[in-house]
Amino acid sequence: MRIVADGDVVGFCENMERKIRAHHYYLSPCEQDGAMNIYDTIRQIGILNSRPDAPVHWQLSVQTHKWAGIE
Description:
Elements: E1 2-5, H1 10-19, E2 25-29, E3 31-32, E4 35-36, H2 38-49, E5 58-60, H3 64-67
Parallel strand pairs: 1-2, 2-5
Antiparallel strand pairs: 3-4
């Protein structure tokens, strides 16, 4: 499962963990006002993965086409 981090999505991700069972969980940065929110996305992954009872492990999914300027 992949979620685009277009703001504070920690609560949404926790809800999706309960509703959707997947082998892999990814959080992708979002382009906002011409900039990728990569640091905020990594921060949220840290929050999700540092929970003592975290049922799953979240990973970063980089949208390479965005970094390359391909729409």
